[in-house]
Specification:
heterodimer, A: Cytochrome Bc1 Complex, Chain D, domain 2, 2 domains, two-stranded antiparallel ribbon, 18 helices, 2 strands, about 70% helix
Chain lengths: ~475, ~450
């Protein structure tokens, strides 16, 4: 990060900026595209097979909702992941694109099929619904759309798996002591969490999509003026509940299997990742959250299955909310347990590579910060700009996770600390109960400057 | 020149042995497809709102039908435009990583408008399309939705073009501080004029093509088709001549270093060639201006000529990249190589040092204190948030008092800041306190 221009997001911080986009994307891509395509293709096939034209029409209305959300919010937040990564961690996304360029290119080609098939399926539905042959064709569009959505997930989970478990031991993906780094693309691709992650995501996405379909079926049937449409609720909700009865337990089992593949050090951070550091030891609370979410899903599925017609709206909403919480937690945890790394054992969360550290400790982090003005990076003899220089260091090394005075703010975290205490803490960032923090990189003088800056945050406005 | 360039990513570019021209051609092709859809999006969404308005004032069903029919090309082109925008970005970010990311960072957070602004416009344009029949008696409201969507689409090119102009001219990295520094330059102005003129001439041709198809289909559609052909011709005939004049100028609005070098490359002919193709297309349509009876073969020829003109513009733009990046890419490669050699040498030395260093044997109590987070606030010999362990030991409190303080928390003994209760077994608390008391 140190050699790119500095962009700061005040108050909410870079992490939250990324999280907003990422969570929205996961909701829509998993529930809307990957899971939604399977669930809706299945429902269309089911309705057509039973020659139940009212249900077939309701499925079209469901597809309209899914179409609108996935093609706008889903597709653009997908591109947004890139743009956000560009401005938050250019070194990391730049490295990932160098390693996965062709896989991303293949994904883009499959993405073409996905979008075109969805456009075709949706925009020709009405016209094709008139004849049985047309409907059979239409259902086939849906199936191909489902397959292509899944293939895009197949590729992207390889990249997510790589960031967490890039096979550094035993199967190196790159030799860090060679420039330019010659990547072993197979070792990078076939990383140990790829398939477990994919399997878990596939089934949980279908379950999530079925829950969304239940909620939307409820809404569509409740507000339709057409008696026939209103009567489709029972059959469709029961169908979606059946899908959930299969996918929820399978997804949970695969999720557990995925968890077992994660490195020990990363797994130990899960309670902290789910809540905050204060809960690092509170395993029981973590289990309570998990069983609360799981219980809500199971109970509402049972209601949907046994009483699809009278399923209360509140249960459908609860079901979807449980899934939203689940995906939110899942993504937060997956991102957090990788800390302090962005690419495990290769690059820290602030974009500094592990191999950079000894050199930068010698020459200083600021020597190569070319986009920073001289007076903000060279400490003057009288040390009058010490705090400004420290601020620059915080912008380079801390800002990926901390803000000045907002979320995870340095000011709040060091309230009541003396400058000596801060200086001492900087010496040992990954220790002291915070194994997810990257070590300080830079010279002793830079450490002084950073300590002076952080200490100054709680002194502002004080009368001297 | 005052170059400020970031280092390159120290991993090989995965070309799979393919030559440079392969990636250049790939970049141009995917960009042409992307921009063709974007031109259509801008034009078609505008046409839909305009004819919706005229439909109300003229009480014309045909105008209203044309307006509705234009929502289909809008939906298709917004989806495909976004989709094909990904491929050029992918090619650019793997080949010119440092320049592209620097430009994006310099125009942040405004660049995020191309995500969030786009989502907003997308959703509104869907609302506009799918509420056509249900809002039939609330035309004012309906038109307002469409208008806001179109105006939001119009705000996207200035943002994206500022980023693109910054990235194409790496010498500006040293001086440009934010998006406005680049948006308010003559270059961005010229390129935006060129963009909107091309968008309306391109959509004009698309409307002629669609119109011919609708006329062929007959019935109600035929009337909308004639209207589309007429409007398409008008848009092209207005926009193309101005564009013919503006187009060659765009490529001399880049920085002097680039413009001067550009003249000496064959790329300089590309914008003129594009102007010539547009002129041919202009006369081709002029011959058929008075009549709305156009056949499909004429319309197809017009589309082909228009695409050729756009491809020539894209080639001219690619030429800027070739000319502009030659020197900075070389400088960047040299700087990166020097830096990485230093880094790797230092890293090897460090590893050697670690290998020879004696192994540190940690007291189990220290590891326990670390794992329980004690060392976040305490150290052995310096007061941090809490007192140092030496100070605690020197105070001479009994082990039982300290164990109680650990388990229940404590405040007041060492100042206001409280120590929260810690989750520990009796055994662990005892181990820790015994170790602390040894630190005197």
């Amino acid at each position: 990060m140190f050699d790119f221009p500095i962009f700061e997001m005040p108050t909410i911080g870079l992490r939250m900026l990324m999280a907003i986009n990422a969570i929205i994307h996961v909701f829509v891509s998993h529930g809307g595209a990957v899971g939604g395509s399977v669930v809706l293709a299945l429902a269309a096939w089911w309705a057509n097979k039973r020659n139940d034209m009212a249900s077939y029409e309701t499925v079209y209305r469901l597809l309209m909702v899914f179409f609108i959300i996935t093609t706008s919010v889903g597709a653009l937040t997908g591109i947004g992941m890139w743009i956000h990564a560009n401005i938050i961690s250019p070194n990391a996304i730049g490295g990932l694109i160098r390693v996965f360029f062709w896989k991303w290119f293949i994904e883009w080609i499959v993405f073409n099929f996905e979008v075109v098939l969805l456009l075709f399926w949706f925009m020709t539905w009405k016209q094709k619904a008139l004849t049985p042959e047309g409907r059979a064709k239409s259902v086939r569009f849906g199936i191909f759309y489902a397959v292509s959505s899944w293939v895009t997930m197949l590729i992207i989970t390889a990249i997510l798996g790589f960031m967490l478990t890039p096979n550094f031991d035993g199967q190196p993906w790159v030799d860090p002591e060679v420039y330019p780094g010659n990547v072993n693309y197979n070792n990078a691709l076939f990383n140990p969490t790829w398939f477990p992650g994919l399997a878990f995501r596939t089934f949980s996405s279908i379950a999530f999509a079925a829950a969304l379909a239940i909620m939307w079926t409820w809404l569509i049937t409740a507000f339709s003026k057409d008696e026939a449409i209103r009567n489709t609720r029972e059959g469709l909700i029961k169908l979606f509940a059946k899908i959930m009865i299969v996918t929820v337990p399978v997804g949970a089992a695969l999720g557990y299997y995925y968890l077992l593949q994660i490195p020990e050090a990363a797994r130990a951070m899960i309670p902290t990742a789910m809540m905050t550091r204060a809960f690092a030891d509170k395993m029981d609370l973590m289990y309570m959250i998990i069983s609360g979410i799981g219980g809500a899903v199971v109970v509402t599925t049972i209601i949907a299955y046994f009483s699809p017609k009278r399923m209360p709206y509140i249960a459908a909403t609860l079901m979807v909310s449980a899934f939203l919480l689940f995906w939110g937690y899942e993504e937060r945890t997956r991102e957090f347990i990788r800390k302090p790394f962005l690419i495990y054992n290769y690059m820290y969360a602030n974009g500094i590579r592990v191999t950079d550290v000894p050199h930068l400790n010698k020459v200083g982090i600021l020597k190569h910060a070319i986009f920073v003005d001289e007076e903000k990076k060279v400490i003057k003899e009288d040390k009058s700009n010490l705090i400004e220089v420290g601020h620059t260091i915080a912008q380079i090394e801390c800002r990926a996770c901390h803000t000045e005075n907002g979320i995870n703010g340095l000011k709040f975290l060091t309230k009541g600390w003396s400058e000596a205490a801060i200086r001492n803490r900087i010496n040992n960032l990954p220790g002291g109960g915070t194994p997810y923090m990257a070590p300080f990189v830079g010279t002793e003088a830079e450490k002084d400057a950073l300590a002076a800056y952080i200490a100054s945050l709680n002194k502002r406005g004080e009368i001297k | 020149m005052n170059w400020k360039l970031p280092f390159d990513i120290p991993l090989v570019v995965p070309t799979m042995g393919l030559p440079g021209w392969f990636f250049d051609t790939l970049g141009i092709i995917v960009f042409v497809v992307h921009i063709a859809f974007i031109y259509t999006l801008i034009g078609a969404s505008t046409a839909s709102v305009l004819y919706n308005i005229t439909g109300v004032f003229k009480k014309s069903k045909t105008d209203d039908l044309l307006a509705y029919k234009m929502t289909n090309p809008t939906t298709i082109s917004e989806n495909m435009g976004a989709l094909w925008g990904v491929a050029p970005l992918l090619v650019i970010s793997v080949l010119y990583t440092g320049f592209f990311y620097t430009a994006i960072l310099k125009v942040s957070p405004h660049i995020l408008h191309i995500i969030y602004g786009n989502i907003f416009a997308f959703l509104l344009s869907y609302a506009y399309k799918f509420s056509w029949h249900s809002l039939h008696h609330h035309k004012g409201f309906h038109i307002a939705i469409g208008l806001v969507a179109v105006l939001t689409f119009y705000t996207l090119p200035p943002v994206f073009m500022s980023m693109s102009n910054l990235y194409l001219q790496p010498e500006t990295f040293a001086t440009v501080q934010n998006i406005w520094d680049m948006m308010l330059t003559p270059l961005t102005g010229f390129r935006l004029i060129n963009f909107f003129l091309t968008a309306f001439s391109f959509t004009g041709i698309v409307m002629i093509y669609l119109g011919v198809k609708w006329v062929k289909a007959g019935g109600e559609d035929a009337e909308a088709g004639h209207l589309a052909i007429d409007q398409g011709k008008k848009w092209f005939m207005w926009a193309a001549p101005v564009n013919i004049a503006v187009l060659p100028l765009v490529f001399f609005a880049f920085s002097p270093r680039i413009s001067e070098a550009y003249i000496h490359t064959p790329f300089v002919f590309a914008p003129f060639a594009a102007s010539v193709v547009l002129t041919i297309l202009f006369f081709f349509l002029l011959k058929r201006f008075g009549t709305s009876e156009m056949n499909l073969s004429d319309a197809t020829k017009a589309v082909v000529l228009m695409v050729v003109a756009v491809a020539l513009m894209a080639t001219a733009r690619h030429g800027i990249r070739v000319v502009s990046f030659e020197e900075p890419l070389k400088l960047q490669a040299e700087a990166t190589e020097k830096y990485m050699n230093d880094v790797i040498a230092e890293y090897k030395a460090y590893k050697e040092e670690m290998k020879n260093a004696p192994a540190v044997v940690l007291d189990p109590a220290v590891s326990l204190a670390d794992s329980k987070g004690c060392l976040a606030c305490h150290s052995v010999d310096t007061a941090l948030v809490g007192p140092s362990y030496k100070e605690v030991a020197a105070k001479g409190e009994s082990a039982d008092v300290l164990i109680a303080s650990l388990k229940n928390g404590s405040t007041g003994k060492w100042g206001e800041t409280p120590m929260p209760p810690q989750t520990l077994t009796d055994e662990e608390a005892k181990t820790l306190v015994e170790w602390v008391l040894k630190q005197k």
